[in-house]
Amino acid sequence: MPTWTLTPLLLPLRYTWKISRNASTTKTNLLVEVADESGPSGRGEAAPNVRYDETPELLQQQFRALQEAGLGRCTTLEGLAELLDAHAPAHALRFALESAWVHREAARAGQAVWQWLGVPAPPRAGVPTAMTVPIMEPGAVAEFVQAHQLSRFSPLKIKVNRDAALDLLAEVTRLLPGHPLIIDGNEAWPDADSLRRDWEQLRQLPGLRVRLLEQPLPAACATDYRALKGQLGCPVFADESVTDAADFQDIARQFDGVNMKLMKAGGYLNGLRILRHTRAHGLQTMLGCMVETSLGIWSALQVSALADVCDLDGFLVVQNEPFGLVQEEEGRLVME
Q: Alpha-carbon distance 321 to 295, whole Å?
């Protein structure tokens, strides 16, 4: 019978990670491992997200409850899925559990994880990733861009809030005119009218080149997103509006693409379903991440061939990253 363990990982960050709703200098993720008396083990990572009311403490409580409910008696992926469906743990914990199982099964079969999942191989030359500039004072941007040599990443992702977006983007475009940017609002604007007004100013910035705008309004603002569709001059992608499930016909009326994160999808199997529904409804696909170690990023890279855009820089934010499963080379990610 399999034995499951869960270990907290305290992760100091290389700099303050600030987005529109919070800021942090450390992150506590959770390492899940499944093993038995013979054969390889499997590991998965959970990165709790406060946006979805996930905390390390909650996930640890849920893990203990799953153990009491028979986690160690699961002998197939189908059996594990039934247990998780019945108890509905946080999405991040569900992903850690499912991915640990999948990683173990792939190793037992002598296959790469992408092969075991039945998806195309990641590019041999590495996967281009966006790199994120967190919210900061405009005067700090030049030093940050230089210290981290951010010009090698295409696109750059700029976290913004409503109050300071113009000044922050003005400084980024001054330093890197014409560089492709992902602008990520993390639901910072309250409605369509406020975004329209501010967006008109932003569009006038010299050197601004927007690859896409990500989730500028709250997920609840479906009517506003429908009203904005096609009006902003760039693709608008859903993030918080698509978690583990969505009405994709309606999502296609609101957005031009979807950012699928395995941590909020709750597993490989559901993540693949979301990517396929996204594509089937004529939307662009994006693969994102939370602040994660290279274990979580390595997991995401297994399905990266299905994404038009990858934003998998979470492990680059972690100081003294513990696993070394992924390396970044000139803005591309290579699995070790």
A: 10
